[in-house]
UniProtKB/TrEMBL annotation:
Protein name as catalogued: Uncharacterized protein
Amino acid sequence: MKTISSIISEHFKSIKMHGIKVSIKLLSNFFEFFFFKSFHHFVLGKIIKFKYYEQKLKAFSTSFGS
């Protein structure tokens, strides 16, 4: 028969392990999310800049063309 203290200590060990697993999972999810978001912003920024300059170039060429 287990004593109350051993049951409690086992319970806390399992909580601790679970907590470590959860925090590792959260950390990896955060890094994945952060990396993806920054990468996404970088790509989106490049595309937006390209579109912006493309429109400027079109406006520039049409003003000279007419």
